[in-house]
Amino acid sequence: MKILTGNDLKSGAVVWWTGKGWSIHVDDAVDAGEEWETVLASEEAERRVNVPYAVEAEQRADGSIRPAHIKERIRALGPTVRADLTLKPNDPDAIAEVV
Amino acid sequence: MYQYDQYDQAMVDARVAEFRDQCRRRLEGHLTEDQFKPLRLMNGLYLQLHAYMLRVAVPYGTLNSRQMHMLADIADKYDRGYGHFTTRQNIQYNWIKLEDAADILADLSKVEMHAIQTSGNCIRNISSDHFSGAAADEVIDPRPYAELMRQWSSFHPEFSYLPRKFKFCVIASEKDRAAMRLHDIGIRILKNEKGEVGARFHVGGGMGRTPMISPVIRDFVPVDQLITYAEACLRVYNRYGRRDNKYKARIKILVHELGKEEYTRQVEEEFQHLLDQGVEPPYAELERIKAYFADPAFEEGLSDDLDLSDPDFALWVKTNTNPHKQAGYVSAVISLKPVGGIPGDATAEQMHLIADLAKDYSFDELRVMHTQNIGLPHVKKADLYAIWQKLDAAGLGTANLDQIGDMIACPGLDYCSLANARSIPVAQKISQRFDKNGKSAALGELKLKISGCINACGHHHAGHIGILGVDRKGKENYQLSFGGSEGEDTSLAKITGPGFDEDGVVDAVDKATDVYLRERQDGERFLDTYRRIGMAPFKEALYD
Ligand code: HEM
Ligand code: SF4
Question: Which of A49, B276, B322, B448 is most deeply buried (CB count within 10 A of its CB)?
């Protein structure tokens, strides 16, 4: 599947398209659909996201979303060398899942 | 240390106000990202992997305690409690919000700091020897010349849109502690036989995709023509540098393609033309700047004796200090490379402690080193023990300067959007491996440098051992190279052969050091042994 991502204009935070808005959790991402370029253009024009683009990802059996490229997985979680700075500081397996 | 005059402060304050307005217009939608991006980059604000990233300039790496306290406060107030000191003697913050950016610059301006010249195709923040003004072997303090060049280059209208970024380095000793010959222009301040001060110009060095060591194009430029000569070098580049191809746009390509002789000829011609154009600042300005860099009030007649009965302290003194020009003093280095740590990172708390140490023991001066460590330039030997105890208690007392554990690593794929692979985890694993196997001390000086992509921010081309992260079919892979140096014997490293995965490259480094330990002759460093015996014995050990 294709999912959409970008950064929040004000905070710079990595965000993912949920079909209605933008979430910092990649697991909230939805398939971008056919019209994704239109979505990106209008969301960017409205400043609800900054420099957005589409990436490949897979939805796993438990519903979670895993971007295909390690760079996007690191964006989704946070630096692999500082668990405390990631979105899942208390999940001991989170980093292993990324790399 | 240099202090802003009214012009410096007015320029920085005006820039903060201008940028505040630009941020407002971006947030309100009057500017698109395409319009805003070049403006934010001129103020050191990048968009990186996790958020905005702010790079703050530390001109020629010199800081006072007030400035370091401010850097710590910014880390606490606007970031996540830490910062990353870089190979360009700057600091980067990784979690900046656009909404805060102008406030941060305003805070910085209160302590005579800014983020100008940290991005874009301008003359970047000028780097220098981290022991300037302190080292026993220097001819003269190079920083006044670097400061003069900072003033000349800041907002220079002709050089704000060069074909590509432009990096100067100014040193003043034969020993090169600043990778001078791997800069676009490296300047060595020296004295001729008559004792006059002048500058030797090396032009066309760099790392990145096409690493090159700069040739000397002029042995001696009289010091009162320094700026004019630099301007001539830049002019020729600005005119003929390749604007059509980003990968060929650095001056090293121009010098290489024209040939050193032709480039030099054109520079000399331009120089003759510029000599009567009034480019050179009045000599009085250099004298004014010099006054700020006068030696601090060193005590005279101090003893060089030191009680080394504590073995851990003795080790730290042996590895982490550099001879000082004044009897009874040394320069001490605070390692930001604890075993298994993230090279170059410091917490706000550590920054505050370092600032306090500078205030109490080093005439209020600090140095950011390109090796991603912090220097205390002027320390009384008699104070070393007290300093070391405080550092050790804060996890800053690692005694590993220039050893394998003191490796340089760029942020890599953990932070950088240009990366192919992560650098930091490789650094951590190597650091832990060599701590465990106890080989570090026996290996002695061994400079290992890691970059997460070919841009070479981690100086891998110049590592005795270099590691480059590449993307191999979507997987992180690491190319190993040997034989680089960024000292006075600058050389570029050669690739060993096929790359390795993360654990594989750690093993490979381990094996390579065994070859060295087996083959070395008296007094040889890893680099010397490699240069003598060549790649073959290493290859045999790595790829069997
Ligand atoms: C994370 C954001 C960073 C970005 C986007 C970035 C970007 C780049 C690029 C594009 C180049 C290649 C320039 C060229 O060859 O034309 C480069 C070179 C370089 N960067 Fe970075 N860099 C980053 C971080 C750093 C850090 C953290 C350091 C210090 C640790 C650093 C120091 C250098 C140095 C020393 C070079 C090579 C010297 C040269 O040839 O100019 N950079 N960087
Ligand atoms: S070398 Fe590459 S990965 Fe490392 S900081 Fe520079 S641009 Fe980023």
Answer: B448
Residue of B nearest to A71 (CA): B413
- B215 within ligand 2 shell (Cβ under 6 A): no
* CATH 2.130.10.10 is held by the domain B142-291: no
Residues 9-28 of A with CB under 8 A from B: 9-14
Residue nearest (by alpha carbon) to ligand 2 atom 6: B457
Q: What are phi and psi of B240, to 5 degrees?
A: -115, -5
Report yes or no: B58 and B68 within 8 Å, Cβ to Cβ.
no
Which residues in chain A have their CB less than 8 angstroms from residue B27's CB? Answer: 9-10, 47
Domain B408-543's class? alpha beta
Using one digit for the tens of pLDDT, what is the confidence trace for B70-126?
999 999 999 999 999 999 899 999 999 999 999 999 999 999 999 999 999 999 999
Asked whether the ipTM of the predicted complex exceeds the cut of 0.90, the reply is yes
pLDDT tens string B358-383: 999 999 999 999 999 999 999 999 99
Tell me, yes or no, if B31 comes closer than 8 A to chain A by beta carbon.
Answer: no
> Which amino acid would we find at residue B12?
V
Pairing of the two strands B374-380 and B366-368: antiparallel
Of B239, B244, B288, B236, give the one whose Cα is nearest residue B263: B236
A/B interface, count of CB pairs below 8 Å: 66
Least CB–CB distance from B50: residue in A44, A50, A78: A78
**Can you read off the two tokens belonging to residue B375?**
């220097």
